[in-house]
Amino acid sequence: MIDAAFDRLAAVTSTKLACDLLGKPRATHYRRQRPPLLGPRAPRPTPPNKLCEAERQHILTVLRSPGYCDLAPAQVWARLLDDGVYLCSISTMYRLLAVAGENHERRRQRTHPAKQRPELIATAPNQVYSWDITKLAGPERGVYYELFVIIDIYSRYVVGWTVAAAETGELAEAFIADTLARQGITRDQLTLHADRGTSMTSKPVAQLLVDLGVTRSHSRPHVSNDNPYSEANFKTLKYCPAFPGRFGSIHDARAFCADFFEHYNHVHRHAGIGLHTPASVHYGTAPQIRAHAPSPSTPPTPPTPPASTTDDPPHPSCPPPPGSTNRPEKHSSKTNENLSHRA
Question: What residues form DSSP beta bridges with 161?
Answer without folding.
Answer: 149
